[in-house]
Amino acid sequence: MQVTNVTGQNIDSSSILDKAKDRGSSLLRTIVSNPKIAVGVGVVAFFVLMAIAAPLLTPYDPNASVVKGSLPPSSAHILGTTGLGQDLFAQLAYGARVTLLVGFVAAIGSTLLQVLMGLSSAYFGGIVDEILSLIINVFLVLPGLPLTIVLASLASASGANQNEYVIALVLMFTSWSYGARVLRAQTLSLKEREFVVAARASGESSLRIISTEILPNEISLIASTFIGTFVYAVGAEVALEFLGLGNTSRASWGVILYWAQNNAALIVGKWWQFVPAGLCIAVLCAGLTFINFGIDELANPRLRAEHPQRRRLSSRKKHGGSVTVTPEVAERSKNDSSQEHAVLLESARMGKALEVAMPEQQAGRVTSYVDLVDSVEEGEGKSNE
Known about the structure:
Blueprint: E1 2-4, E2 10-12, H1 13-33, H2 35-52, H3 54-57, H4 88-124, H5 126-141, H6 144-157, H7 163-174, H8 177-190, H9 194-201, H10 206-214, H11 219-242, H12 253-262, H13 265-268, H14 275-299, H15 308-313, E3 318-319, E4 322-325, H16 327-332, H17 342-350, E5 354-357, H18 360-384
């Protein structure tokens, strides 16, 4: 199918679709190839699906008393009931909506503020940088959690029934300053690079340079700060509701822990009132942290797990106390004069792969050196790209 753009040029829509599919498949391969990201995405997707499908997973109303008193887990109530006779699994499933919504809204808003303030401050400089840096510094020294507690308590005292939105806004405005400072430092470095200078010299607008030249090179850092803010927002939201500063009449993970503490569930041994919610919080935060670690590995070659294909590129085999190296690896190590790397120099002189039996400790040092050479070379290749 052919379409025509405003300049009169014909564009093949099938090629556009193919490019979109390629990008989608590339993203999927990236997620699958990194076990940390795969595990983290799986955990987050599980809780998102649980929150969406809550009406299909349980027939109970999370706020309705279905039995008298607190009952342990059974076939009728798989996670037991609260002190008021409410089904805990229903509260857990429906409560995931509130916790995930607050964390997502706070993380999205905070990340947008970070990008706006950090990139604008660094790129424009001058009086703009001074004003925005002053604002960032003011928010940096503000005690975030105490301020959040005070504002949330004021919202709770006002009798508002939408405390979760107030909490999300408060968390959004108290968690953006550190990420903005990091992005400002990164942008100060990027705006002096050759490709940015060339774009500026060619007459590109500031908005286009920021959006097409600088911002794409900070995607990994922005994604990392988004995940970190998400984890902080989830933990802070649960902490505030545990203190009774949220809407205690609406089911959420923090409210479950609040009522468990009020009913002295830990003292009387009713573990089912707080263990499931605590585990969900811990597993969700662990999944988000795994995603963060995976992003770091993708962005930093030194942290990236070595792919089996890259292991084959090193052309070495280690069996017990012997090690095999290639002339290429040996040539890269020719300036190293330590005794452990004599086998590398000998391999370069002979012009072929050389397998040498040596003490296991020495073989380990040679193998570690080969790994280091490969890692440095990979990092240099990424820099050149």
